């Protein structure tokens, strides 16, 4: 962004001032647009301004579909406040060009056989149990969406975001849109993948791999035989979708639809809204069991039958859906999978409502509207089933115990959700996927928005109980500090599941999400305490945690001792990353990422690894900074302050 653009942006923001909190939105928006959050090539939002950060992405200048979805929401609110919708359209165009695989990146979808979507590969508990053997004897279901989507859009391609981009191509794969393994000389962004070895594979134990594997890098079979054991291996492509991010992008588009319509500017974004609707059509893959098996009491891979029609749909937003195929376009094949596990934290009733009810976001698929209406009802039922006696929401449910259709413990078979089994930590156990408090306000905020729009009494009952739980667990030191839950522990199972606050903190991202949740609730119910606590959190973070790049609090990175953690690589397996880093038995997180030693912050970590103090960082994550801006602006809109 050059100086002329910055000046124009500053002038626009100055003209749009309307209140304390919308002014704060504009101030934060300006920082996000000018302080290093976007790549110089392509204008792509980074995961964080800082490069040395390891959490879900393992480097800050990667990015996620999560960041893109927050960007869409941010620009929707910018349109509302400043009556300027071009940035919203531009953000979706950048999303479409860079994180939705173009047709050339998914070249063999036309070979896909919906009567046999994929071949079963059991998930294992530990990375050391991989590669996992393909088992073609296990029955799978049929994909009822494929032909419907082809009929609607005239293509076999999937219109969904891949979850992870190496924006600056630091790994060097060079899987840029439409290209496969160009290598380190490619500018990026480059598609990459991580996490493919079971529930105990934390970010520190991953072996990042290219989404397009032509065997140029890695070992004899590229990276494929690290994960899957087969008789032979073919050069192939594969992508993974994070459904909560696609749903958040659709949620942002819904608000854009409402706000643009209010100001008579709907026509300015109509084409973008049709793209959001299309994304929602394909997002239905997240509503199905991983192998399209029937939902309910699925306790044996061999005997649990495949689903037909919609019998393989749980209608909840699963943790992922994925698709892939051969690179050879003359002898092609392709596959698609959903996910058997659903986490409450990924549910988005507002997105389901929008896709079922907003004429500006109506998908073209013949059964899409009815599917999303069913999903909306099912999600609300899911919240009811998972709500603790205290009010917080427990983890989720799975149709495939241990990821291989095992029989769960007997105490979990007594009270199921449409035959799916309760899991307090769906999908990931290192760390547990429902330990982080942030899952609560992320998901409950969407529930509160849905309630604000519809007045649904079911949603209100759920929110009443949640608000009664969270308010006593937020401590306000007037004008100086707020604390709220940071980590949670869980006991029991539905209908007798309980939550305990294990630790507290003052995180700005989860604080913003909590404040916005309370603000939507207060605006609908006139709950003065919820409004005041929301205001206090927003005021304190704004006055106490200002930085030159946004709003952030220092945090101790006590997990960074794991830079030296061993990463399991099978004995006798050897391969290489494009820069020459070796993938072999005995490798560690840092040995496979030697480029980290050139990072300007590496000295702080190196000192810690050598016995020094825990390093402290002040991170500016894109999602959190956008969440802060959105929370401030939303409060201003809801209460005209």
Automatic annotation (TrEMBL):
Highest taxon in the source lineage: Eukaryota
InterPro entries linked: 6-hairpin_glycosidase_sf, 6hp_glycosidase-like_sf, Endo-1-4-beta-glucanase_dom2, Endoglucanase_F_dom3, Glyco_hydro_48F
Molecular function terms from GO: cellulase activity
Coiled-coil regions listed in the entry: none
Signal peptide start-end: 1-18
One of the GO biological process terms: cellulose catabolic process
Keywords, sorted A to Z: Carbohydrate metabolism, Cellulose degradation, Glycosidase, Hydrolase, Polysaccharide degradation, Signal
Alphabetical list of Pfam families matching this protein: Glyco_hydro_48
SUPFAM superfamilies in the record: Six-hairpin glycosidases
Identification of the protein by name: Glycoside hydrolase family 48
Originating organism: Phyllotreta striolata
């Amino acid at each position: 962004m050059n100086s002329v653009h910055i000046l124009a942006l500053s002038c626009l923001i100055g003209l749009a001032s309307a209140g304390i909190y919308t002014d704060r939105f504009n101030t934060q928006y300006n920082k996000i647009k000018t302080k290093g959050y976007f790549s110089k090539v392509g204008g792509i939002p980074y995961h964080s301004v800082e490069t040395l950060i390891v959490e879900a992405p393992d480097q800050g200048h990667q990015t996620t579909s999560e960041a893109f979805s927050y960007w869409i929401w941010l620009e929707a609110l910018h349109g509302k406040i400043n009556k300027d919708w071009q940035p919203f359209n531009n953000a979706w165009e950048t999303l479409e060009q860079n994180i939705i695989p173009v047709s050339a990146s998914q070249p063999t979808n036309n070979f896909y056989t919906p009567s046999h979507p994929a071949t079963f590969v059991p998930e294992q508990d530990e990375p050391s149990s991989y590669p996992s053997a393909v088992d073609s004897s296990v029955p799978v279901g049929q994909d009822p969406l494929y032909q419907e989507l082809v009929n609607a859009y005239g293509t076999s391609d999937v219109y969904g975001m891949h979850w992870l981009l190496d924006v600056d191509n630091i790994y060097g794969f060079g899987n840029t849109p439409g290209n496969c393994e160009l290598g380190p000389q490619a500018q990026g962004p480059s598609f990459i993948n991580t996490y493919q070895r079971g529930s105990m594979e934390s970010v520190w134990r991953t072996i990042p791999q290219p989404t397009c594997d032509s065997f140029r890098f890695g070992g004899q079979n590229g990276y494929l035989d690290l994960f899957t054991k087969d008789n032979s291996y073919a050069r192939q492509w594969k992508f993974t979708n994070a459904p909560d991010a696609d749903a958040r992008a659709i949620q942002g588009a819904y608000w854009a639809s409402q706000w643009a319509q209010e100001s008579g500017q709907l026509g300015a974004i109509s084409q973008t809204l049709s793209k959001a609707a299309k994304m929602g059509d394909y997002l239905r893959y997240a509503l199905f069991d991983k192998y399209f098996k029937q939902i309910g009491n699925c306790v044996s891979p061999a005997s649990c039958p495949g689903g037909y029609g919609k019998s393989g749909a749980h209608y909840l937003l699963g943790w992922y859906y994925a698709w892939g195929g051969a690179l050879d376009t003359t002898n092609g094949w392709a596959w698609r999978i959903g996910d058997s596990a659903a986490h409450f934290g990924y549910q988005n009733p507002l997105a389901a409502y929008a896709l079922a009810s907003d004429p500006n976001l109506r998908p073209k698929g013949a059964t899409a509207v009815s599917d999303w209406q069913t999903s909306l009802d099912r999600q609300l039922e899911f919240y009811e089933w998972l709500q603790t006696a205290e009010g917080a929401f427990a983890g989720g449910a799975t149709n495939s115990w241990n990821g291989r259709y095992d029989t769960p413990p007997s105490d979990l078979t007594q009270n199921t959700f449409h035959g799916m089994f309760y899991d307090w930590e769906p999908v990931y156990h290192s760390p547990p996927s429902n330990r982080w408090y942030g899952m609560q306000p992320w998901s409950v905020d969407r529930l509160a928005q849905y309630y604000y729009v519809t007045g649904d009494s079911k949603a209100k009952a759920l929110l009443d109980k949640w608000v009664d739980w969270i308010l006593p667990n937020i401590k306000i030191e007037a004008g100086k500090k707020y604390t709220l839950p940071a980590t949670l522990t869980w006991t029991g199972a539905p209908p007798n599941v309980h939550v305990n606050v294990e630790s507290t903190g003052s995180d700005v991202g989860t604080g913003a999400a909590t404040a916005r949740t309370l603000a939507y609730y207060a605006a609908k119910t006139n709950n003065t305490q919820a409004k005041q606590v929301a205001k206090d959190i927003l005021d304190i973070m704004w006055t106490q945690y200002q930085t030159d790049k946004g709003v952030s609090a220092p945090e101790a990175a006590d997990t960074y001792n794991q830079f030296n953690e061993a990463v399991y690589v099978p004995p006798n397996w050897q391969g290489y990353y494009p820069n020459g880093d070796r993938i072999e038995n005995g490798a560690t997180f840092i040995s496979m990422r030697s480029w980290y030693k050139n990072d300007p912050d590496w000295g702080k970590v190196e000192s810690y690894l050598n016995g020094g103090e825990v390093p402290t960082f002040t991170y500016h994550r894109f999602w959190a900074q956008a969440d802060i801006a959105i929370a401030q602006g939303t409060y201003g809109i809801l209460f005209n302050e």
